[in-house]
């Protein structure tokens, strides 16, 4: 069975659910593992969160949903505005928590992008820019831990 095409994955509160276990005193207990979606960068090495330009005829939320489809091939529903984050070049990125409801088989940038689901510690290691780590930790994690369940 191929792990590449996961069309029947389960999602909860914008996160893909994984089956995993943790050991406690010799007994194994089911454990939920929170993951976030990252994509490869086209212009440099490393991973980033799907993001992109905001066009004149759309809201910032519509732009975020469109970019998720174009770059990562996922459809979903915006759950929460996570904040505006400023990069080293002064650009401002508005970040949202998107509840992924579907992974597309085909999407506009599939030949140049790959999507990767990562547990939070692995995602933090991939954040090459300070603003990305801020968006993950102070935006997404803070939101997820304060009542998304």
Automatic annotation (TrEMBL):
Q: Name one Pfam family in it.
A: NUDIX
Q: Which PANTHER family match?
A: DIPHOSPHOINOSITOL POLYPHOSPHATE PHOSPHOHYDROLASE, DIPHOSPHOINOSITOL-POLYPHOSPHATE DIPHOSPHATASE
Give the family this protein belongs to, as stated in its UniProt record. Answer: Belongs to the Nudix hydrolase family.
The Nudix hydrolase domain covers 1-140
**What do the Gene Ontology cellular component annotations say?**
cytoplasm; nucleus
Cofactor(s) for this UniProt protein: Mg(2+)
Question: What SUPFAM superfamilies is this protein classified in?
Answer: Nudix
Q: Write down the InterPro entries for this protein, in alphabetical order.
A: DDP-like_NUDIX (IPR047198), NUDIX_hydrolase-like_dom_sf (IPR015797), NUDIX_hydrolase_CS (IPR020084), NUDIX_hydrolase_dom (IPR000086)
**Name of the protein in question:** Nudix hydrolase 13
> Could you give a GO molecular-function term held by this entry?
pyrophosphatase activity
Q: Keywords of this protein's UniProt record, alphabetized?
A: Hydrolase, Magnesium, Metal-binding
């Amino acid at each position: 069975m191929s792990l590449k095409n996961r069309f029947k994955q389960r999602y909860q509160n914008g996160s893909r659910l994984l089956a995993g276990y943790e050991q406690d005193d010799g007994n194994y207990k089911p454990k939920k593992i929170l993951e976030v979606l990252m994509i490869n960068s086209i212009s440099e090495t490393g991973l980033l969160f799907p993001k992109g330009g905001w066009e004149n005829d759309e809201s910032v939320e519509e732009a975020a949903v469109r970019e998720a489809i174009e770059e990562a091939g996922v459809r979903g529903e915006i759950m929460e505005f996570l904040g505006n984050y400023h990069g080293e070049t002064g650009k401002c990125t508005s970040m949202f928590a998107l509840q992924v409801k579907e992974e597309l088989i085909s999407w506009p940038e599939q030949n140049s992008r790959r999507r990767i689901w990562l547990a939070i510690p692995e995602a933090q290691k991939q954040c090459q820019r300070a603003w990305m780590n801020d968006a993950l930790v102070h935006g997404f994690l803070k939101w997820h831990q304060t009542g998304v369940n």
